[in-house]
Amino acid sequence: MSGTSLDGIDVAVVEIARGRIQPLIFKTTPYPNAVREALLSVSNGMTHTAVIARLHFLLGELYADAIRATCHRRVPLKSIDLIGMHGQTIFHEGAPIEYLGHRIASTFQIGDPAIVAERTGIRTISNFRERDIAAGGRGAPLVPYVDQLLFRHRTKTRVALNIGGIANISVVHPLTQAKKPTIAFDTGPGNMVIDALVRRMTDGKAAFDRAGDIARAAQVHSKMLDGMLRDPYFKLAPPKTAGREQFGQDFAAGLIATGVPLEDLIATATEFTVRSIAVAIATHAPPESEVIASGGGIHNTHLMQRLRALLPAVSLTTSADFGIDPDAKEAIAFAALAHEFVQHRPANLPSATGARRAVLLGRDTPA
Amino acid sequence: MSGTSLDGIDVAVVEIARGRIQPLIFKTTPYPNAVREALLSVSNGMTHTAVIARLHFLLGELYADAIRATCHRRVPLKSIDLIGMHGQTIFHEGAPIEYLGHRIASTFQIGDPAIVAERTGIRTISNFRERDIAAGGRGAPLVPYVDQLLFRHRTKTRVALNIGGIANISVVHPLTQAKKPTIAFDTGPGNMVIDALVRRMTDGKAAFDRAGDIARAAQVHSKMLDGMLRDPYFKLAPPKTAGREQFGQDFAAGLIATGVPLEDLIATATEFTVRSIAVAIATHAPPESEVIASGGGIHNTHLMQRLRALLPAVSLTTSADFGIDPDAKEAIAFAALAHEFVQHRPANLPSATGARRAVLLGRDTPA
Q1: N or C: chain B end with fewer CB closer than 10 Å?
Q2: Helical pair A249-256 and A192-201, crossing angle rounded to 10 deg
C-alpha cells in the first residue's frame, strides 16, 4: 500500500486462515526523494505520458524490492501465496463527470503488478478500485469491508475510526445483525486543519500538535466552532467523502485570516475534529458502542480525551488492542482484499461506496 | 484491438477448439473524432493525468459497446467465454532507458478491463505486453506466437508477412522442426514512405498508391535505392524493431529534398520496401517457403508482383486464403492470446521479443 501522502511503501505480511487475519510483519520503505517528486508532479497535474509509463514500471521494481526487504530473513518468499498490491493513486474522481458525451468516474493507480509477480514469483492481485467504479460506486472506501472482517463482534456494535488527514468511520454491526449494512463515511476533518495551523504557528518546525499540548492549553472559540459545524457537509447522508480541498490548506488559511491567535485556532480546530467525529458516531452507532481508533490522530491524547468526554458511554480503544498496528491497518486491508478476491468473494460494500452491487475487486497476475 | 493508427476498435469473434482458431465475425468501430483527438493528445505527449484516467474508463465503455454491437443478433454475449483486450497503446518504450537510477523499459495501454467485464459479464484478459517487459523483453511483437498457431505446417516453412506502415515477418518452421525458434522482426518500411510521398504528390487527395499504379509507371532510381538499402538497420540481427521515426515523414521529406520527380520517388520507395522484405525472407527462410501476406500492402498489386519476381521459388498468398481476413489478424491474435493465458500457456516468443524466458501474458478480470 502506498498512500496519497507519498511517504513510501507499506508492506504488511499477514497470515489468513479460517477467517482469522493475523499480522506478522510490517515495514515502511520510504520512496526515494526523486521518486516522490516525480509522483508529486504526475499526481493530478500536467505531465508527459512517458513519465507515467516509466513510473508505473519503476514502482513495480520498488514494490518488489520493498516486499523482498520486508521478508528478508523473516519469511521465505516461497511461503507467500499472494500479494495484494494497491499501487499508488495518481488520480481519483469517484463522482462521475460529463466527459466526451459519457458519464465517467475514474481512478488511476500505478505500479506494475507484472513486474512484482515476475520479480517475486508470487501471484499478485491489483487494481482493486476499478471494478467498484464500473459497478457505479466511487471506488472508495474499501477498508470498511476489512473492518468487518477484523472487528465484527458477536453482540457489540463496533466503530472503526481512522483519524488521518481526514477522519472516517465504519460502523460494524454485531453478528446478530450482520444483515444490516456497514455504514462507512468520512466524518470530516482529521488532523489536516490542525497540522496546517501548527506548521504555520511554528514556521514549519513542527508538523503536528504533539499529544495535543497546544490545544489543551488554549481557548476554543465557540462561535467560530458553531460556524464550522454548520458546514452543509455534516448534513449530508452517508455514503459521502470529504476531500483535501475541503478541510485542507485553504480552510486553515481562512481561519488564520480571522486574526484569532494561532493557539486558539488550533484548540478550536481540534474541537472541530472531535465534535464532527462524535456527532457522526452518536448518529450512526448505539451509545455503548466500542470505538477502535487508528491513524496519526490517536497520538493526540487531548483529542482522544475530548472524544471520551463527548461519548461517555462508548469504550474507546485503538486497533493496537486488537493486534493491528494502527499504521499497518491499510496495508493489512489490501492483503485481506487480495484473499477475498481469490476466494471469489465480492469485497466492496455498496453501503460504503455507493455501488449498485457487490463485485469481485481486483485483477489477477499469475506467479 | 486498437492500433496506433487510432482508427478505431477492431472486434473479432473467434471460436477456438482443439487448437483450431476459427474466425466468426469481424467489425471495426471507428473512434468518435473527439476521442481520437484526445488519444492523439495523450499519446506520447504532454497531458493532464486526469485526461488519461478519464480516457481509460471511457475506452472501457466504448470497447464494451463495440463488443455488444459486433455480437448483436449474431452471437449471444452469454455464449462468449473470454475477451482478449489489447487496449490502446499511448506509450511504448521497449528498450530500457536509465530512469531515476534504474534501467526501465515500459509500455502503457489504456481501456479499463473492469468496465468491459462489468458491462458484458464476460471474463476479460488484458495487459498482455507488461509481463514480457518484466521478463526482459521489448513487449513486442506478440503476434508471431499466433502466426505459429495459425500457420504452422507439417513440412513447409511458412512466413507470415504483414505490410502495414512498417513491414514485419514471422518465419514459422515446419512441425518437423518445431523446436527451432520462430524468427520474427520488422523488415523495414512497409507503406509508410510510399503513403507519405503519395499524400505530398496529390496534396493529400490520395493517401496511398492504389494498386501501385504510380510506381508501376515510373522510374526506380537505382543509385538512390542502393543508398537506402545501405541503412545499418538492415545489417542488424533480429530481433529488431523499426519505428515510425525511422521510415516515416522525415525519411520521405529527405527523399523529396533530392528534387527527383515524386512519381520516381514513389517507384523507388516501393522498390525499397520490396527489396528489404525480399532480402529478409531470403536470409531467414528457405527459397521454397510459403509467404502469407496481410496488411494494407497486399492491395498494392505492383508491390506484390515485384515481391513474386524477387522470390521466384516462394509461393506468395494472403491470409484470406487461410480464412483470416487480413485486416482482422491482429484482433484475432489477441483472442488467441487470451485463450493461451487461461490455458496457462506462456505466449511470448523470446526469439521475437528478446525476453529471458517465456511467461504468461495477461491480467485476469473475472466476469
Answers
A1: C
A2: 50
